Amino acid sequence: MPIAGPSAQTNGYIFVRIQGGFHEIRSAICDVVVVSRFLNATLVVPEIQQTTSKKGISSQFKSFAYLYNEDQFMAALLKDVNIVKTLPKSLKSARRNKEIPVFRVPYSASPYYYLHNVLPVLIKHSVVELVVSDGGCLQAILPPQLEEYQRLRCRVAFHALRFRQDVQELATNILQRLRAPGRPFIAFDPGMTRDTLAYHGCSELFQDVHAELIQHRRSWMRKRGILKGPLSVNSAKQRLKGSCPLMPEEVGILLRAYGYSWDTIIYVSGGEVFGGQRTLIPLHGMFENVVDRTSLSTVWELSGIYGREAKVDENYPRVQPSTQVETKRDAWKNAGPRPRPLPPPPARPKTYNIEGWWGWVAESDNEPESTVVELRTNAHKLLWEAIDYFISVEADVFIPGFDRDGKGHPNFASLVMGHRLYQSAASKTYRPDRKEVVSLLEEIRGHIYHANHTWLTSVRRHLRSSLIDGLIEASNKSKSSTFLSHPVPECACLRPDSGETSFNASSPSAALSQVPTAPGVLHRCPAWMDGEKSSSSKEKENEEDIDENDPSSSGLFFLHNGSHDVGGEDINLKEESQFEDQEEDGGD
Q1: Which of 153, 255, 290, 409 could share a disulfide with 260, CB 3.0–4.6 Å?
Q2: Strand (E) or helix (H) holding 168
Q3: Order of strands, edge to edge, in the sheet holding 185-189?
Q4: Closest by CA position to 423, among listed 550, 584, 532
Q5: What secondary structure, in 3-state letters, does 256-268 show?
């Protein structure tokens, strides 16, 4: 049964501090709203730790408003939960004096944790502070009697959380520039962050100082209990098990093998790509139109969303020599006659470029303290990932390189895939099985750029099946960690004319149409369902079979195949059908 509206008399205030990256913040906000409603509490607009003023960012925006539209958030949830912008003055001073109880909420806590631990304290003190550091603070799968709280999660994630207006406008402008050529585009999230590679033991995918950096981070994780596995891991075995991200080169090979042409537009999303642009060089070699937010916007446009920021010294502080070193140097200078040859002069004070990472790996087991510039950049990354999130959700095709973060939880790509499933279940979202992909790539390791037709057919079959099989995999694995990675069937809906089924039986949305919802509950469906019938029929008309004599299906599938010498009619045909599923056996 649907939950009642918020009560005017609540049990107290819940103040929340959220730590972590973009995907952790988004998941945590959805969960704290549900927790507040569950405890009949008034929620104070959450504070995002990455965006506090001490990080050197603009004071023009408050914490939550740095990333999301605060007014939209409160208005959209008006009938679900009581939300205020700040604590009352009396409670503000109590929090400032650290007089209110604080809970460091464990990851994926059960509803009973809040009922038995948080609620009694909330009723007694009228306020509690929750510190959320690992993303989701409420278990993903709730008991059947709490199903309506799952729908509340969806209302928060897909309707209440809107990005700040100028961030939304810039993301929309970038999307329009992507669509300007009149061709569909692919969004690709590499998922290759340093934390992810360290947690999953994938350091040997790199062969230089980057491998040392990953191992250094893994050692740091083990000391803090984030990781319980051994320090040294065989990365080759991890890769064969599908536990490492697919490299951009491998994703490029999959897409070219599937039939995407060399001039397909590839948008690289997801913020940091560990290893930098060098890691993306093979992908640039296969596709000439590999872009990201920086190549589709100006420096002025990006700096405009940061707000007014105070200028900081970009010169990193040098490590000052200790007093003992100075004493030894003076003693050496003032010493009397000394034998020949002279002893070597004292070592210069050790300095290193923190931004370049190189120096501190051998200096200490700890990570260097972040500078003001780095802290500011971390806040900027939230805005970058907000832009990438918006574009990835709207992309014609989305493919992830990895779906786990540096703590083993679903990552940025998982949230994108969940949002795309809710917004348009018929959209093409490839969820490749990394273990099977690596096995396919190993088959042609010695002649990777001269694959035969049988191998190409296997790749096409796998990618095509991943559109459906990946949904089942996400339901079984990702959903148990983060509800937003697979928000169905709880967020399914009924239409007033639900007697008619307008779903294509071969599309993912066909399964969603069969999902029952709670008795007597009628939910407004996303807009994509109204146009499903026409879009699916158009897609069916545009389907094209694989021609065994097609040059792109032969060995050298990375050649441009005549590129611009092809007639205009042929080019238009390719552009119309390049994103459609292809059958294996001849034409109809």
Answers
A1: 255
A2: helix 165-179
A3: 289-291, 265-268, 185-189, 397-400, 428-429
A4: 532
A5: HHHCCCCCCEEEE
